[in-house]
Amino acid sequence: MWLWLATLAALPLAGRLYQIAGEWRDARRYPPPGRMMGGFHLLDSGGEGPAVLLEAGIAASSASWKLVQDELARQFRVVSYDRRGLGYSRAAERPRTLDNLVAELDFVAESAGIGKPFVLAGHSFGGLLARHYAARFPEKVRALVLLDPLEPFEWFPLAEVRRRMLGRGVMLSRRGATLARWGVVRLGLDLLLLGSRRLPTMLAVAASGKGSEVTKRLAGEIQKLPPEVWPRVKSHWCLPRSFSTMAEYLERLPEYCSAPLDEEPLRRMPVHVLSAETTPPPVVEAHRRWAEQSQGGTHRIVQGSGHWLQLDAPTLVSEAIERAVMQT
User: Fold this and answer.
1) Hey, is 54 helix, strand or coil?
2) 238-253 confidence digits (pLDDT tens)
3) What residue ranges in 114-262 does DSSP mark as E strands?
4) How far is Cα 251 from Cα 142, in angstroms, rounded to an integer?
5) How many structural domains are present in the chain?
6) N or C: which end of the chain has fewer CB within 10 A?
7) Model-level pTM?
């Protein structure tokens, strides 16, 4: 009995030590590619050609653009980055308000020294953020390319079912931060990368119940990236701050979606929108309107693609961004 209790009491300490050792090991095995600037991690292909800036989804990092960035970098200057609290970037020092996110995107663009109007591409929540940035700084954006962008009416006003869904997402993200702090997330992901399926699944179910299905879907999306990227993405999602940042984003989602947007500047630039085949018709219709109301914009439904278009159809996405660059 006493031995069992002693073993149980030692588990949290063992988990914490496992986490600390893992963070130390990851920092040495997987240093950030690209460069760090003002707490932000930037991947900049360099060059003198037309510039493209890539904005990731709500809890994603520059890694989600890997396939597209590699293709575009053959002929353009391409910059991607990790928002604060995600990927290799340092923890956020300011609240994740929309104003702060737009200001930080502008800081990245200025720090990268792009110095001329660029094509801004955004995926999902990154599409909403890109619209607000372009509306605030229209002189800096030559065209928008939006990949299955989030539409404000999806999350504001909140229907009861959406409110519960969002609340559960915030709760699971905060729980994930706690589990990451004590090494549970790291253990599950380490086992998953080693080829184990049963124990990681049991850990996910125990930790999040039905939320484990979301975990499985996200793991499936990550596996569409080149295998050499997986350990880096895993190292990011072993960090408590990744989950804490995601919790704040989700908590503020209605706030982001209720923020006023001056649409007039967007009508004077090309807005190209790609919708996933799985996107609900009302959202697709909103995507179509954004393109139609802009000057020279286009809209396309990508057959056979899910929400992560840059992973499901990277060549098509690259071609859409290339056309936007060459058009302006």
Assistant:
1) strand
2) 999 999 999 999 999 9
3) 118-123, 141-147
4) 32
5) 2
6) N
7) 0.91
